[in-house]
Amino acid sequence: MRTIATNFFFTLLLGALFCMGCQSPFQKTATAADSAAVQPAKIPDARSFKEDIDGKQTGFFILKNSKNFQVAITNYGGRIVSVLAPDKNGKLVDVVLGYDDVKTYQKPKEPFFGAIIGRYGNRIAKGKFALEGKTYQLDINDGVNTLHGGFSGFYSKVWDAKQLSLQMLELSYLSKDGEGGYPGNLKVKVTYTLTDDNAIKIAYSATTDKTTIVNLTNHAYFNLSGAGSSTITDHLLQIDADTFTPIDTTLIPTGKLQPVKGTPFDFTSAKAIGADIGQQNDQLKNGKGYDHNFVLNKNDGSKPVATVVSPKTGIIMEVYTTEPGLQFYSGNFLTGKTNDGKGKAAYGYRSAFCLETQHFPDSPNEAAFPSTILKSGAIYHTLTTYKFLNKKR
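and the corresponding structure tokens:
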């Protein structure tokens, strides 16, 4: 079985750094526009995140480890607002897209920046599924399908928050029976923990009083060159997956598994995100780029399932998970039409990527996919870690 070697990334990174002057059709290195767009790394003002929403108070929580690695989170949607990670020179870089105030997170068609996603991350075909002989109809909020829990997904809820320490935040939420069309009272807890080796551990747990479906994830948008930088197509990516789930034109899996070998979806060896994204390929056409679930070769949390590096900053991100799938999204629906990002940044087309650990999209309607059913008395538990390293000069 393949594993992802960080040292291999270091070698590739050194080559990329020495070739900053080299041109390629997919690689966009630092530009004047990037320099103007990427703001000095700082945490937004906590006062801009205090608001009463649906009778509950939103707040802002800053986690910091012994190495000054910092993460800012709001309990509105459980969203990761900022991640300040050191680059190759030791300078802190904010590598997560987000907003400077809680009001902007509430705007129509906001792209789920940094949010906890539930009850069901990703898509369910036509918003329907059958469970124990009963058919359930969910909100239709993405064309003909349900996306990320529907109109009342966890991304729009005010979570109860407890900051347990400087490095740990606990969020909890009760999703009542029938919310969004889902059965059962679901008690959810998500804990964010910073480690001293610059990792963010996200532990999810849930219980229900009635059989239901659950698929939780986080929807952070990353740019390891800095939030506001113009592209992620130069980032080097490796995913430990030999197959992926192809999709139809509505982004619903066909139910089949397709080998990545010989396709633009082969990230078993590190390559730039933009290397093959422009190929004539039906799956790239359906997703308008990469917006696909990769079937992970190993998901016991012991080794990285994905590794990404920015040749500009030298920041490396490793992803560990106990989930069977990983949704790789290349920011195809970002438009850059507004300048309402942090520091008035415009988040343009393919200026961020997501690596969402998950069960597969539309699993409730695909018996061959790993089950997302949670029964009364059972405990849902999953763990994902995003670890940040750097290649120092």
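(Above: one complete record from the training split.) The radius of gyration is 20 Å.
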